[in-house]
Amino acid sequence: MNPRFYTLADVAEVLNISMSATRALVHSGDLPAIQIGGKNAWRVEATELEAFIQRQYELTRQRIKSGELQA
Q1: With contact defined as beta carbons under 8 Å apart, do 46 and 4 qualify?
Q2: What is the value of pTM for the model shown?
Q3: What is the CA radius of gyration of the chain?
Q4: Res 71: pLDDT
Q5: Segments making up each domain of the chain, as ranges
Q6: 39-43, Cβ contacts within 8 angstroms, sequence gap of 24 or more
Q7: At the top level of CATH, which class does the domain 5-66 belong to?
């Protein structure tokens, strides 16, 4: 069974980014998360992580199409 929620460390591993980059995504609101218990106990729902990834794919496609990025 797949987990419903991921820790920020899990998210950082999945996205292959640093913990500070992961925290920045959460604090900016780009990656929705909930805070459970203590101040550092953030959780990201698996569906939110997948939706974030899909949004990044779409943004990248748009940037390539507009010429802002080159594939």
Answers
A1: yes
A2: 0.89
A3: 14
A4: 66
A5: 5-66
A6: 42/7, 42/8, 43/5, 43/6, 43/7
A7: mainly alpha
DSSP track, 25-71 = HHHHTSS--EE-SSTT-EEEEHHHHHHHHHHHHHHHHHHHHHTSS--
Question: Exposure pattern of 22-37 as b/e (b: 16+ CB <10 Å)?
Answer: bbebbeeeebebeeee
C-alpha neighbours within 13 Å on the C-beta side of residue 46: 5
- Encoded tokens for 32: 């929705």
* Sequential pLDDT tens for the chain (71 residues): 889 999 999 999 999 999 999 999 999 999 999 999 877 899 999 999 999 999 999 999 999 999 888 76
